[in-house]
Amino acid sequence: MTEFPIIQTNIWDSIWAVPVVIILTEILKKILPIRPQYVSTVATIIGLVISIFISHPHNLPAGIFMGFFYSGAAVGLYASLKTSLRAYRNRP
Q1: Integer distance in angstroms from the first to the last C-alpha of the chain?
Q2: What are residue 57's phi and psi, to 5 degrees?
Q3: In terms of Cα–Cα distance, which of 9, 12, 15, 77 is closest to 43?
Q4: CA–CA separation, 35 vs 72, rounded Å?
Protein backbone atom coordinates (compact mmCIF):
# COMPACT_ATOMS: atom_id res chain seq x y z
CA MET A 1 0.00 0.00 0.00
CA THR A 2 1.41 3.36 -0.97
CA GLU A 3 1.23 6.29 1.37
CA PHE A 4 -0.34 9.59 0.50
CA PRO A 5 2.19 12.17 -0.69
CA ILE A 6 3.22 14.83 1.78
CA ILE A 7 2.16 18.19 0.42
CA GLN A 8 3.84 21.15 2.02
CA THR A 9 2.46 24.51 1.05
CA ASN A 10 2.93 27.97 2.34
CA ILE A 11 -0.04 30.05 3.48
CA TRP A 12 1.31 32.91 1.36
CA ASP A 13 0.81 30.79 -1.77
CA SER A 14 -2.91 30.69 -1.06
CA ILE A 15 -3.11 34.35 -0.12
CA TRP A 16 -1.69 35.52 -3.43
CA ALA A 17 -2.86 32.69 -5.71
CA VAL A 18 -6.60 33.01 -5.05
CA PRO A 19 -6.82 36.75 -5.92
CA VAL A 20 -4.60 36.19 -8.96
CA VAL A 21 -6.95 33.46 -10.21
CA ILE A 22 -9.93 35.80 -9.75
CA ILE A 23 -8.21 38.74 -11.46
CA LEU A 24 -6.95 36.69 -14.42
CA THR A 25 -10.35 35.06 -14.86
CA GLU A 26 -12.04 38.47 -14.90
CA ILE A 27 -9.51 39.80 -17.41
CA LEU A 28 -10.08 36.81 -19.68
CA LYS A 29 -13.85 37.27 -19.37
CA LYS A 30 -13.46 40.86 -20.61
CA ILE A 31 -11.04 40.00 -23.43
CA LEU A 32 -12.50 36.71 -24.69
CA PRO A 33 -16.13 35.72 -25.21
CA ILE A 34 -16.23 33.08 -22.46
CA ARG A 35 -19.66 31.59 -21.84
CA PRO A 36 -20.72 31.63 -18.15
CA GLN A 37 -20.76 27.84 -17.83
CA TYR A 38 -17.04 27.72 -18.70
CA VAL A 39 -15.80 30.36 -16.26
CA SER A 40 -15.11 27.83 -13.50
CA THR A 41 -13.17 25.68 -15.98
CA VAL A 42 -11.05 28.69 -16.94
CA ALA A 43 -10.43 29.40 -13.23
CA THR A 44 -9.43 25.76 -12.70
CA ILE A 45 -6.95 25.89 -15.57
CA ILE A 46 -5.43 29.11 -14.23
CA GLY A 47 -5.22 27.66 -10.72
CA LEU A 48 -3.52 24.52 -12.01
CA VAL A 49 -1.01 26.51 -14.06
CA ILE A 50 -0.13 28.73 -11.10
CA SER A 51 0.19 25.80 -8.74
CA ILE A 52 2.10 23.42 -11.01
CA PHE A 53 4.52 25.94 -12.53
CA ILE A 54 4.96 28.53 -9.75
CA SER A 55 3.98 27.21 -6.31
CA HIS A 56 5.01 23.55 -6.66
CA PRO A 57 7.29 23.26 -9.71
CA HIS A 58 9.11 20.11 -8.54
CA ASN A 59 6.14 18.16 -7.18
CA LEU A 60 3.44 17.39 -9.75
CA PRO A 61 0.96 15.66 -7.38
CA ALA A 62 1.15 18.60 -4.97
CA GLY A 63 0.77 21.05 -7.86
CA ILE A 64 -2.35 19.34 -9.16
CA PHE A 65 -3.84 18.94 -5.68
CA MET A 66 -3.25 22.56 -4.64
CA GLY A 67 -4.27 23.91 -8.07
CA PHE A 68 -7.76 22.56 -7.56
CA PHE A 69 -7.87 24.15 -4.13
CA TYR A 70 -6.73 27.54 -5.46
CA SER A 71 -9.34 27.54 -8.20
CA GLY A 72 -12.10 26.24 -5.93
CA ALA A 73 -11.34 28.92 -3.36
CA ALA A 74 -11.32 31.60 -6.06
CA VAL A 75 -14.65 30.52 -7.55
CA GLY A 76 -16.22 30.22 -4.10
CA LEU A 77 -14.95 33.64 -3.00
CA TYR A 78 -16.19 35.26 -6.21
CA ALA A 79 -19.65 33.66 -5.91
CA SER A 80 -19.91 34.62 -2.25
CA LEU A 81 -18.94 38.25 -2.87
CA LYS A 82 -21.29 38.51 -5.83
CA THR A 83 -24.22 37.09 -3.82
CA SER A 84 -23.51 39.37 -0.86
CA LEU A 85 -23.25 42.45 -3.07
CA ARG A 86 -26.54 41.65 -4.81
CA ALA A 87 -28.28 41.11 -1.46
CA TYR A 88 -26.86 44.38 -0.15
CA ARG A 89 -28.06 46.33 -3.19
CA ASN A 90 -31.56 44.81 -3.09
CA ARG A 91 -32.24 45.34 0.61
CA PRO A 92 -35.26 47.47 1.48
Answers
A1: 59
A2: -70, -20
A3: 77
A4: 18
Q: What is the 3-state secondary structure (H, E, C) of 22-59?
A: HHHHHHHHHHCCCCHHHHHHHHHHHHHHHHHHHHCCCC
CA–CA distance, 81 with 31 (Å, rounded to integer)? 22
Q: What is the mean pLDDT of the chain?
A: 91
**Which residues touch 61 (CB under 8 Å, ≥6 apart)?**
5, 7
Q: What is the pLDDT of residue 47?
A: 96
d(CA 12, CA 90): 35
Please tell me the distance from the alpha carbon of residue 19 to that of residue 23, in angstroms, as a whole number.
Answer: 6
Tens of pLDDT along 30-74?
999 999 999 999 999 999 999 999 988 988 988 999 999 999 999
